[in-house]
Batch of 2 targets.
Target 1
Amino acid sequence: MFSTLAEMSVASRLAPFGSTVFTEITALARAHGAVDLGQGYPTWEGPDFVKEAAIEAIRHASNQYPPSMGIAELREAIARRWLTDTGMSVDPDTEITVTSGCTEALAATFLGLFEPGDEVILFEPVYDAYPVGCALSGAVPRYVTLHHPGFRLRADELEAAVTSRTRAVLVNTPHNPTGRVFDRAELAAVADLCRRHDLVAITDEVYERMVYDGEHLRLATFPGMWERTLTLSSIGKSFSLTGWKTGWAIGPEHLTAAVRAAHQFLTFTTPNPMQHGAAAALAAPEDYYVELVAGYRRRRDLLTAGLAELGFEVTVPEGAYYVLADHTRFGFADDVTFVHHLIEDVGVAAIPPSAFYPVSDEGRRLVRFAFCKDEATLGEALRRMQRLRS
Ligand code: PMP
Ligand code: GLN
């Protein structure tokens, strides 16, 4: 009896995932004093005007439960941003939900939308929270591989993944870990698929502001897509506040209702001070983003040029803040072996991408470096990696 219950538990369904690769690599990096280009957290702190707004809220605003859907100031700020970015009006009362990071928005979306056995199309390399969302909800992932080195989304392979059980497709753009910013043709193929097969689209746009080449396009703005799309994001990346875990879901009322059904019992709400800080963040002038992108472009160029110089084959990222590099030139059996050598003998931490490839083995030849690190840190990592040449 007990073992039957245990087999049905969420814990047993999550057991195969172990602890996250980020937790594992961060611990290993610290133990070896490695320069950490692993987990994607900036080495600097978020802007003072955002932190001050949160401090002010702790001092002077209510520290009791905010409304479950989020404080009005933040929902209105999200709606204003959406109008500026897309020209579309959204109703902050019925079409926006504040969540505890994009991670909770993802969990609430999976739990709110899917029945066990429903199929969800995911792209690999895949961000780890998506397969876990499937495991939590009982949904079944169907993977479409973005092939190295270009990582383009192929419409024929997407079409081949659809079955009579398919309910949704999840697109992350700009993409972690490839750095792809999907272009109009690629997203039009997803939109076309969704309309023809009556699918829901879930988009993870947490890197929406980190775009160096191309343009960030939102699937929700494609013809016929608003009513079937949930757009998820957060302030963690755009404001260098990954520890704040303040995000949101934007979508039509019927999809928002599903997200809220789960959200109200997952966390009920998100800490009040962070919501006030996030509202201030979203009122930032355009200059803030111009400077953010200029800094990231400099760091991207520094790291990609340095890696290429060392002998890595680099796919230059169009967005987000990661580089996937091919390490095969150095003669290691796979990504895990290479990363262990890198951390333990070279003193630089990175992520072994096979963790992002549940199906294909294309991740074994690759290594992921994060460039949300100051130039001194990137420079020191490159200096240490000179050892790879000998
Ligand atoms: N989606 C992607 C693709 C990410 O890289 C991250 C980074 N942590 C998240 C979601 C989670 O965002 P948050 O910290 O807002 O939960
Ligand atoms: N998004 C971060 C990364 O890809 C990790 C966040 C986490 O540790 N869950 O590095």
Note: The CA atoms of residues 272 and 278 lie 10 Å apart.
Target 2
Amino acid sequence: MQHNRGQWQSTAGFILAAAGSAIGLGNIWRFPYVAGTNGGAAFVFLYLVCVLLICLPYLFCELAMGRHTKKNPVGAVLALRGKSPWTLVGALGVLTGVCILSYYGVIAGWAFGYIFKSFLAPALSLGEFSANSMVSVPLFALFILFTILVVVRGVEKGIEKAARVLMPMLLVLMLLLIVRGLTLPGAWKGVEFLIKPDFSVVTTATVLAALGQAFFSLSLGMGAMITYGSYLPKSANLQTSGTYVALFDTGIALLAGFMIFPALFALGGNPSSGPPLIFEVLPTVFAQMTLGSVVAAVFFVLLSIAALTSTVSLLEVPVSYFVDDRKWSRKKSVWVVGAAAFALGLPAALEPSSESLRSISLMGATGYLSVMDLIWGNISLAVGAMLLCIFTGWVWGYLKAGAELQEGGGMSEGTVKIWGVFIRFICPLFIFLVLLSLFPFGSRLLAAIGLG
Ligand code: PFF
């Protein structure tokens, strides 16, 4: 069985692939606009706290589960616990992978289309561009196809190879754009926006946004890191590799901030423009630069690359489930899951041209795509992470999980003890409180005990 599951060729290959999964639209599209609408530096600070104190300890749960069992999220929970309701938590991860892929692929398709748009139709707004379903649906289909073509080649030849080429390219392109932005007169205001916090703007909603963003950005809560961890050999050091992944992801999110806000402030854009920020505001910023359409095209190449290494991981999670537990071939799994994600994403692609899809709303999110993102990209990831944390800490047992982390010269005994406190108490409790604040009765309860 094991031989046809695949394995990373090296730890560096794993780090690049896992960082590739983590680094995506979440860092370059979502982080800047969420930071922009949540007041800048104060949000960035909370985000960093969430990554360090909640996400990093939790990341080790997923990596330990994956490498110990060599399975997908469902198979991993089954292997550690046998048949029990906990299996549903693994199943939620697999389902979340398909659902996030469905709308994420739509946005990735826009990013890909914008490479050409910057030359062909620079004046078109995002609304006009995305409302043309003759363009947005084929772009979405194309992006899902790219993803399928990488994943069908397997772990080493597909995912790892793509990440090895694409991730360094991404970094170089970003650095070029940062230098370009920082050298514009007035860029410093954008830097200040990111580093000078004003804590008076912080509310529970800011904390929720920061935690949700941290999970999404690090690909946590749906077992992507269980799956990627399952292709790691025993000799790999989970503590260092996991820390690198978190460091790279956070670094790239911050770099994305430094790529966007200085240019934005220098050229007079509005930081709180929401989801269209990079699609609408940035191109107008680029338009004012010399060689603006080339810079814009470079930026959207970069965004497409980042998105591809993430969609690959979103597809790999359900695929690994069908390969491991349903004994499907990789090829069949990839095409079936890819097609399912495409079907599920069609309403998101058609939303800009459909009044009824635009008017769907839930708990403050409006429109099919935003509602899907709220359910799967926010709530499901947080619920999944909370439950998998409890599973590792209390059901599998933090000492057994800790023994896995100690393999390959990884975590020391002392660190395992501290980590155990985090994953048994601090992380699940914190996530629970944040989730509670999402619901009206919960936020009233939190306010009543002075935490709201
Ligand atoms: N981390 C990716 C991003 O920041 O764009 C999105 C993502 C990928 C979330 C894989 C969850 C996941 F399992």
Note: The two ends are 51 Å apart (CA to CA).
